[in-house]
Design goal:
CATH topology of the largest domain: Triger factor/SurA peptide-binding fold
Helix content: 40-55%
Strand order of the largest sheet: 4-3-6-5
Number of domains: 2
Structural class: alpha+beta
Radius of gyration: 25 Å
CATH class of the largest domain: Mainly Alpha
Order of helices and strands: HEEHHHHHHHEHHEHHHEEHEH
Largest sheet: 4 strands, antiparallel
Number of strands: 7
CATH architecture of the largest domain: Orthogonal Bundle
Distance between the termini: 7 Å
Length: 399
């Protein structure tokens, strides 16, 4: 079952904003909190009978995130990362000690992203409150109903309490944290929205689009004599004829006598017939996010997502192809003739909101948090923070 995920964590990891999984049915009304882990916090917005392990672990002005809440966020980060490959990764030390490619280990990179997320919530939540913003009763009701659904998804209040005890949090502290996070969403829009104090501009969105999107189309010829999945068999003569045909098509295109679209009826995967002008796709994390949101079966990007991730050399060859040229890729599943066409200007309108919400806004928030940290604007209990790490953080089942 999917649990209530932090929206700011989702933004940091470029994933969709999910409150509850489908299996968690909402139940009416509030659930009176039982005291789970006694503790105190200097944040008046948190119930002081039900908070985390470290008082004021992260503090900005009059708002704080207790240690238990931070551990809970670390657990969401860790659990989401482990499940991001379809549950194919194992929680062991060798995974977290791997090089993340930026001078950090995977464990440290995930820890730092979670810390940035928590500090972003503190900062933007505080900005919203200082500007006089507040939550509506409907917004508070939605948070309450979602957490009630979480309790219900565990099957019993006892099971929920037992799970939360691993983090040192309870119903009230989670509810108050998500209220602070909702305020942070309002604060980030107040600052970064189109009419905000420091808005992300259309020019920034367009610049990102031009640098991080490509339009591709391809022709595919099956040169595999025996398809391991379908069992389909073709003769060596048929295979040889297709290889020769690929040579001819490439020559005609290079001589300027034809375009790739002229051979759409010969493509054996139907792509050119379905998308003769090609498909405009995002690169990197944003493509992963779209696949995650839409699901592989429903995503128009999945053909290229599959080719990029499963066909050796395809991604590199496609990305190195210059606009207006065709590259031939001889792979283990056949021949691909890939053309990079001019980037579609009209598609920018389809992507600009996602570029803003999932790319530029989290980047700007991260930059703001790092600047504030350099200025020592946050009170961080460094000694207590040093006791937290991804390796020892519990995994949340169902995420």
């Amino acid at each position: 079952m999917k649990k209530y995920l932090s929206v700011f964590l989702v933004l940091i990891f470029l994933a969709q904003c999910i409150f509850m999984g489908a299996c968690a049915k909402k139940v009416a009304g509030n659930i009176t909190n039982d005291v789970i882990i006694p503790g105190v916090t200097n944040n008046p917005d948190f119930d002081n009978t039900d908070t985390g392990k470290a008082e004021g672990l992260l503090v900005y002005k009059n708002n704080a995130i207790p240690g238990g809440i931070f551990l809970y966020l670390l657990s969401q980060t860790k659990s989401s990362y482990l499940s991001s490959a379809g549950g194919g990764m194992t929680d062991d030390a060798s995974l977290w000690s791997k090089d993340a490619g930026n001078g950090k280990t995977v464990g440290q990179e995930l820890f730092d992203k979670t810390l940035d997320s928590a500090l972003s919530i503190l900062y933007y939540g505080t900005v919203a409150r200082e500007q006089g913003l507040s939550l509506t009763q409907d917004e508070i009701g939605e948070i309450t109903a979602s957490l009630d659904a979480v309790v219900n998804s565990y099957g019993s209040r006892t099971a929920f309490n037992n799970e939360m005890m691993r983090f040192g949090v309870g119903y009230n502290s989670l509810r108050e944290f998500y209220k602070l996070e909702k305020m942070a969403q309002k604060g980030s829009m107040l600052v970064l929205g189109k009419d905000g104090i420091d808005p992300i501009t259309d020019e920034e969105e367009l610049d990102y689009y031009r640098k991080n999107f490509i339009t591709l189309r391809h022709l595919y010829l099956n040169t595999v004599q025996t398809n391991s999945q379908t069992g389909q068999v073709q003769s060596k003569e048929e295979t040889d004829a297709k290889i020769k045909r690929a040579d001819t098509i490439m020559q005609l295109i290079q001589e300027g006598k034809n375009t790739l679209a002229d051979f759409k009826d010969e493509s054996e995967d139907g792509f050119l017939n379905d998308s003769p002008d090609g498909i405009t796709i995002p690169l990197g994390d944003l493509l992963d996010m779209y696949i995650s949101m839409a699901g592989k079966e429903n995503s128009v990007f999945y053909s290229y997502y599959f080719l990029f991730t499963n066909i050796k050399g395809f991604a590199q060859a496609a990305l190195l192809t210059e606009t207006g040229t065709v590259t031939r890729i001889d792979s283990e599943v056949g021949i691909f003739l890939v053309e990079r066409t001019p980037l579609s200007s009209s598609m920018f309108e389809n992507y600009k909101d996602a570029i803003n919400q999932f790319i530029l806004r989290p980047l700007r928030m991260g930059q703001t948090v790092r600047k504030l940290r350099e200025e020592n604007a946050f009170e961080i209990n460094a000694e207590a923070l040093s006791t937290y790490n991804i390796e020892s953080t519990p995994v949340q089942p169902g995420i």
